[in-house]
Amino acid sequence: MKNFNNFYQYKIHNSRKSLGFFGILFWGLALLICLASTSLQAQSVTRTITVGNTPLGIAVSPDGSTTYVANYFDDSISVIRNGVVADTISLPSVVFPPPSWPTPVGLLVSRDGSKLYVTYSAEASISIIDLNTKLLLNSFFAGNEPQFPAMSPDGRKIYVPSSSDGFVAVYSALTDSPTGAITVGNKPNAVAFSPDGSKAYVTNTDDNT
Question: Which of 35, 48, 85, 155 has the fewest CB atoms within 10 Å, i.e. is most exposed?
Answer without folding.
Answer: 48
